[in-house]
Amino acid sequence: LDVRVKGGERIIGAQFNFENQAVLWSEKGNIYKLNFAQNRYWKVGKPGLVSCANYQMTPPTNLLVGLHTGRAILIDTDSGAIRSRFVENCDILGVGGSSDGALVFTHCRDHVTVWDSVTRKARLRLALQLEASLEFVRILTGPPTIPTSQHRVTGGPTIPTSVHRVITACRDGKIAVWGLPPLANKKSVDKFELLSEGNIGSECEGFCIVEEDLYAATKIEVFKVDLATGMKEKVVDIKDRERICNIDVKTIENRTVIVLHLETRSLFLRNGEVVEQVFCWGAGCFTRDGFLMGKTKPEGSVEFYRVDVAWNKDAVKLNKDAVKIKKVAAKTKPKADVKSTNTVRIERIDKSTAAIIKERVKTAVPIIDDE
Question: Per-residue pLDDT for 192 more than 50?
């Protein structure tokens, strides 16, 4: 299935939510929703030029969008209503939230801001040096019982950590896990607590989290990092291949498959061997059950593939000159503001607060043509 917008308007991003529905956003800021179960689509809105978006939110109808104006907005994709706005006044590179819906984050070039979803106020801001080149941010919910740094050294008993953890990963391979105090604990001081850290040791091109493990892809290797301890394990060593657009990791029926979305294809790797490859340009995304894969193509369309058979396939042999893959198991210890096209009234808001917007976004947009 190839989906594009009539009139030549380019689609620049796509993502599935936890209910296997998809959203697409275009270069002009138009956002569309696709419901595959009902075989229909509709226009969500046109809030402004989109720099990033995250559809894996709670509840699953919510879409968090980062705009070129330095704002992030939470949109109900069923009604098109904007639920809230979070103000950064700088370029937003990524957005997301916790699985319980309590927190939202905005990822900027040199900092991460964590927002309270109820009060719409900034809880904490984690600043990094510009040269760190922050590439990846996620919030995990639910504290694993792990030792603190002191207990790891002395071998003492484990103690519970924060309810929410912020994961940060930089392009140079440095990874950190930061704890946040519980929202209900009024006596605790709001501050980040460093729980663990690790270092891949080389420049990374993509990151992905599966439960308590962070997968990081370099130019020639894929590492798995234990977020509790910071220890890394090299799981795939790849040579003579293309540039990575992004990386996905799926566990289907107790089988973990690493998917490298390259410039011209997507490689499915299990136990260090290629089990499937799909030839298509661009970044990729999957439904939660792994039934469909979406690929955002450079020419501005999105192509959907059925890939449910890929997860259980046996390894296939490739041309040895095309890609060389081998499994490795070696654990190592951690060492200008663009004018918005939004028709909703813009208000000046304090940088540390966010306002609720009840209006709906403009709906007069081009029609999607799915061929």
Answer: yes
Supply 348's token pair: 């000046």
* Tokens at 83, concatenated: 């639920």
Bridge-partner residues for 116, per DSSP? 103
Element (H, E) at 239: strand 232-239
Residue that is written with structure tokens 């654990």 in the block: 331
Q: Residue 38: phi, psi to the nearest 5? A: -95, -5
**In this structure, what DSSP letter does residue 311 have?**
G
Hey, what are 287's tokens?
């439904």
What distance, in Å, lies between the first and last C-alpha atoms of the chain? Answer: 7
* pLDDT exceeds 80 at position 320: no
- Find out whether 361 and 344 touch, Cβ atoms under 8 Å: yes
Tell me, yes or no, if the pTM score tops 0.85: no
Question: Which backbone phi and psi does 57 adopt, to 5 degrees?
Answer: -115, 175
Q: What's the rounded mean pLDDT across residues 162-190? A: 83
If one compares 190 and 129, the residue with the highest pLDDT of the two is 129
Residue 339's Cβ-count burial label (10 Å; 0-12, 13-18, 19+) is: exposed
Helices and strands, counts by H and E, the chain:
1, 32
Where is pLDDT greater, at 201 or 331?
201
Alpha-carbon span 237 to 31, nearest angstrom: 38
Using a 10 angstrom Cβ sphere, with 0-12 exposed, 13-18 middle and 19 or more buried, the burial of residue 315 is middle
pLDDT tens digits, residue range 43-87? 999 999 999 999 999 999 999 999 999 999 999 999 999 999 999
Instruction: Tell me how far CA of residue 277 lies from CA of 52, 101, 267, 268, in angstroms.
Output: 27, 35, 5, 6
- Answer whether 246's CB lies under 8 Å from 261's CB: yes
Q: Are 258 and 215 in contact (CB under 8 A)?
A: yes
β-bridge partners, 325: 238
pLDDT in tens, 113-165: 999 999 999 999 999 887 888 999 999 998 665 544 444 443 443 444 578 99
Helix, strand, coil content of the chain in percent (nearest 5): 5, 50, 45
Residue 248 and residue 250: Cα distance in Å, rounded?
7
